Amino acid sequence: MPEPLQDHLTTSQDDAPATRYAYKASLVGSAHQFELTDEGLAWQVGSRSGVWPYADIAVIRLSYRPVSMQSRRFRADIERKDGQRINILSTSWQTVALMAPQDREYRAFITQLHERMKQAGSKAALIGGIKSGLYAAGIAVVALVTIAITGLLARAIATGEYGGALFLVGFAALFGWQIGGFILRNRPQSYTFDHLPQALLP
């Protein structure tokens, strides 16, 4: 593993192609550091480290994972053939109130990781979105909430409660933007090394 990054969490944008990436998953923890080497994907989290040959990576799952502190947050879950797992996030904690996006650096690193794996003849399963069961549950929740809001809105209009109707419209718009966007982006799918799912990359 290369020497730890000292004063920054990502490589210089002048580096081409992007072969290093790092982020902080919490304020108190160590930075999660990654590098694409000739031997494979090198990683270091605190005192733990390793190098995974590209051909040994069994699964990559890309997903969209917004949180209250950062609505543009993406995640790559990487699993080795022996079951070990690591994840890479597109955001990094900087202060108590700031979770900074690293969109450009994350996209470049994930894209280059796929390219290295392709060159190594990888047979990894490439998956986009969340698991089918969770997706189905999300769709059911959205459908139930939509039915409930529609019923309440119709009743509010029928009884002349226009203030309440306006509130419901605003709530529906917020719900659709947050939950609807999460569901749409995270549709279960498979992809190839040549066609990465753009909706799951920043």
Task: Outline the structure in words.
The protein is an alpha+beta fold and 202 residues long. It has three helices and eleven strands. Strand 6 and strand 7 form a beta hairpin. Mean pLDDT is 86; it is low at 1-15.
Number of helices: 3
Find the count of extended strands (DSSP E, 2+ residues): 11
Q: Give the overall pLDDT as a whole number.
A: 86
What is the percentage of strand-forming residues? 25-35%
Which class of secondary structure composition applies to the elements? alpha+beta
- Low-confidence runs: 1-15
Gyration radius, to the nearest Å? 21 Å
In which range does the helix fraction lie? 25-40%
Distance between the termini: 27 Å
Name the strands of the widest sheet in spatial order. 7-6-5-10-11
How would a textbook summarize the main sheet?
Answer: 5 strands, mixed
H and E string: EEEEEEEEEHEHHE
Overall spatial form: elongated
Blueprint of the fold:
Blueprint: E1 20-24, E2 31-36, E3 41-45, E4 48-52, E5 57-64, E6 74-80, E7 85-89, E8 91-95, E9 98-101, H1 103-119, E10 125-128, H2 132-158, H3 162-185, E11 189-190
Parallel strand pairs: 5-10
Antiparallel strand pairs: 1-2, 2-3, 3-4, 5-6, 6-7, 8-9, 10-11
